[in-house]
Amino acid sequence: MHLEQAELQVIEASSGRQAIQYLQEYAIELVILDLMMDDGNGFEVLQYLRDANMESLVIVLSARREVQDKILTLGLGADDYVTKPFSPVELVARVQAQLRRHRPHSSFPTKILRLNKLVLDIDNYFLRYDGKSFSLTPVECRLLELFMQNPDRVLTKREIYKRVWNHENFDDNNLSVFISRLRSILEPTEGSPHYFHTIRGIGYKFSGDGQ
Q1: pTM of the full structure
Q2: Which among 57, 70, 65, 96 has a CA at the least distance from the CA of 83?
Q3: What does the record give as the DNA-binding region (predicted)?
């Protein structure tokens, strides 16, 4: 009801099996996905989405607050994670923010951002680093883009959340999980270049040269 009041077209699936059927039949731009279902779970639907290389955005909606659940869903390619209970207004804001950020592929030149050894393909969500290419989710790509555009500058958590998620209500756990995901790429082992610096009680600083 809230989504339709925001002038969004909505298709509702009553089960995971029906959700997969709709994803096969319709061009779905964004999925709001509950993890708990009668005939399976949301992880299976999310895995299906990614195995089929579908570009639908995904906001996971769940009562499960454990950090491991967030790590798993974001690792499977979810773009946001909202825990119950939640404000319908906030959920609509998150949906609208994701849709505004979503850029369909086009024939226009790809936007590339370079910082020392890092090459970020913003339109195609790829990072080239140390001779390797890494596929990123749209949120990971926007987060890294923000850091690469502001090297050696302290960014507050609220500022990061507002500029990446495009709304004020920031989730500290969500942000920490996304930072951890990017760290696993850029700082995979002890002794690796140190790009992300935690500024306790404030936010993060990104070192452009990995120092």
Answers
A1: 0.56
A2: 65
A3: 110-208
